[in-house]
Amino acid sequence: SSSSSSSSIRGGNVNRNCIALQYMDAIDEMTEPTTGQLREAYRDVSDHNIHVVWETTILLWMRRLPWYGRLAPPGFEEELKKTLMEYIKTKPWAERKQVAETVGVNAAVLGVGTDAAAAVNDNDDNDELVE
User: Which DSSP letter does residue 53 get?
Assistant: First the structure.
């Protein structure tokens, strides 16, 4: 006997109470296609940190999954920039600037100005955005 809320998996049906999971990754968005290197928007300010910058990573997922973005409270994206700046202040010894410092968190995720911002990291004596 079977209940009305489930049926045979072999027949192509599943329990109506089950949740389907789908694997997703962001490798294509987060890495350079020719080198496989992590894009500047997701790199930490230190080569010693193996973790990606969560503020830009969360925004990436919010853009890819609109339902996820709708869960965020008003002003969430602005808060991300504040938390990133607070984090960066704790790293005065950083090897480079985080691209979002120069172009903003949203622009970093969208790739706006990242070439110019990356040039800042190539020039240790320059604290300003290179045009």
Answer: P
The dihedrals phi and psi of 73, each to the nearest 5 degrees, come to: -70, 160
Token pair, residue 54, equals: 């969560």
- Residue-level length of the chain: 131
Q: At what angle do helices 76-89 and 54-64 cross, to 10 degrees?
A: 160
Q: Does the CA dihedral 81-87-91-94 come out positive or negative?
A: negative
What's the whole-model pTM score? 0.66
Helix (H, G, I), strand (E, B) or coil at 38: strand
71, 70, 59: which is closest to 29 by C-alpha? 59
Are residues 41 and 109 in contact, defined by beta-carbon separation less than 8 angstroms? yes
CA distance linking residue 40 with residue 11, whole number of Å:
48
pLDDT digits (tens, 9 = 90+) for 45-104: 988 888 899 999 999 999 999 999 999 999 998 898 899 989 888 888 888 888 888 787
